[in-house]
Design a protein that fits this description.
Layout: H1 4-9, E1 15-16, H2 18-25, H3 29-39, E2 42-45, E3 48-52, H4 53-65
Antiparallel strand pairs: 1-3, 2-3
Helix pairs in contact: 2-3
Length: 66
């Protein structure tokens, strides 16, 4: 479980790793990875995989707005 400092730091960077993304969305790591890949938020830098917060926010807004 993330402590308060980790939760505060999540909102600063545009790109997040899998753990940060899962915390940000309130999902498990595997579910988050699958969903983020499906919506096109996955960004690969060599072997490193990061997730774009802007794409995630847009997808979440579409889900809420309809």
């Amino acid at each position: 479980m993330a402590n308060a400092r980790e939760r505060m730091d999540i909102g600063k960077a545009r790109l997040m790793d899998r753990r940060e993304g899962a915390l940000y969305c309130g999902l498990g790591k595997a579910s988050f990875s699958a969903w983020a890949k499906q919506i096109g938020a996955e960004r690969r830098f060599g072997r490193r995989v990061l997730f774009d917060r802007q794409v995630i926010d847009e997808a979440l807004n579409k889900m809420v707005i309809g």
